[in-house]
UniProtKB/TrEMBL annotation:
Residues 5-108 form the Dihydrodipicolinate reductase N-terminal domain. One of its GO terms (cellular component) is cytosol. The active site is at H140 (proton donor/acceptor), K144 (proton donor). Homotetramer. The gene is dapB. GO terms for biological process: diaminopimelate biosynthetic process; lysine biosynthetic process via diaminopimelate. This is 4-hydroxy-tetrahydrodipicolinate reductase. CDD domains: DHDPR_N. Pfam families: DapB_C, DapB_N. Its main location: cytoplasm. SUPFAM superfamilies: Glyceraldehyde-3-phosphate dehydrogenase-like, C-terminal domain (SSF55347), NAD(P)-binding Rossmann-fold domains (SSF51735). (S)-2,3,4,5-tetrahydrodipicolinate binds at H141, G150, T151.
Length: 225
């Protein structure tokens, strides 16, 4: 029988629990370690050493420290935590110094990554037609810390002149909308996550991908055409 990929979960909040639930029903993955079940806990270093891949869904406050510590153990990582992209150079250095593999994304949903591709294409078309203004809206549940979302920043990096308005209220797991609008007409693109399951499924896709690789990859790498 094929052996299962061993996962160390770092962070056991909404996303950590969602990934754990998928692993419980999976023949491909097993969770061998959980860190930060409580905020005052330390990293479960002994457990992480036994894992093939550590998946981090924590917070911008602690994620870089986690990458440092897990990197030293030589364990590959999937980083779902957002709000740290200003430290991209530091993380690149840690990945290369420790010779680990790392996949990161502000959004592991397959649908959103297809949305990113559509935005690349839309951006190249609308660039030829300056009559169109562009604006964005993103809505997330009130507990989300970063604003605008990492996903919104990623979309904005693809489309010239795009700024997002952010709403933090209620329970929405993630809504992103981009509108191209002119005097004559408008086109609206939007993505609505229905639950956190899509993010967790994508994080496991990324886990499989990075389980036997070194180097740093955005999750978008898996959607190259
Ligand atoms: N990439 C994606 O697809 C995706 C999708 C959804 C969310 N996210 C991102 O993933 C991250 C986690 O989201 P979530 O909804 O799971 O959040 P959450 O429910 O607040 O869970 C965060 C987890 O990290 C722990 N934690 C937070 N700060 C910590 C610290 N300073 N030291 C140690 N542990 C700490 C929390 O412990 P306590 O419970 O004790 O506070 C909890 O276990 C956020 O950055 C969010 O934006 C990414």
């Amino acid at each position: 029988m094929k052996s299962r990929i061993k996962i160390a979960l770092i962070g056991f909040g909404k996303m950590g629990k969602e990934v754990n639930a998928l692993c419980e029903d999976s023949r491909d993955f097993e969770v061998v370690s959980v860190s930060y079940k409580n905020i005052n806990d330390k990293l479960d270093v002994e457990g992480i050493k036994k894992a093939d891949v550590a998946i981090d869904f924590t917070s911008p406050d602690v994620v870089i420290k986690n990458i440092e510590q897990v990197g030293k153990l030589g364990v590959n990582m999937v980083i779902g935590t957002t709000g740290w992209y200003d430290k991209m150079d530091t993380v690149k250095k840690l990945v290369s110094k420790n010779k680990i593999g790392l996949v990161y994304s502000p959004n592991f949903s397959v649908g959103v990554n297809i949305f990113f591709k559509i935005m690349d294409f839309a951006s190249s078309l609308f660039a030829k037609f300056p009559d169109y203004d562009v604006y964005g809206l993103e809505v997330h549940h009130k507990a989300k810390l970063d604003s605008p979302s990492g996903t919104a920043l990623k979309i904005a990096s693809k489309v010239n002149g795009l700024n997002f308005t952010s709403i933090r209220a209620g329970r929405n797991p993630g809504f992103h909308e981009v509108v191209f609008d002119s005097v004559a007409d408008g086109i609206t693109f939007s993505h609505q996550a229905y639950s956190r399951m899509g993010f967790a499924k994508g994080a496991l896709l990324a886990t499989k991908f990075i389980s036997n690789k070194k180097g740093m990859y955005p999750f978008e790498h898996l959607f190259k055409i």
